[in-house]
Write a structure and sequence with these properties.
The protein is an all-alpha fold. The protein is 75% helix and 0% strand. The two termini are 22 Å apart.
């Protein structure tokens, strides 16, 4: 019943979102920039949700609030 994979997954999603934001900033195609930015935002939101769910499920293992 270990939940150690969830924080790691949320962190991976955050890293991927940052990577997509960087790619979006470097692309010259406005459609591609929007697509990458939207996908980065969705990944960030999903990462935030997973982090929040982990904290809400008896996150007594984590002393941070």
């Amino acid at each position: 019943m270990s939940m150690t994979g969830e924080p790691g997954r949320a962190e991976q999603m955050r890293a991927k979102a940052e990577e997509m934001k960087d790619l979006a900033a470097r692309t010259s195609d406005p459609d591609e920039r929007k697509r990458l930015t939207d996908k980065a935002r969705r990944l960030q939101e999903q990462s935030d949700k997973e982090s929040g769910q982990d904290m809400g499920r008896g996150g007594g293992m984590n002393p941070q609030q």
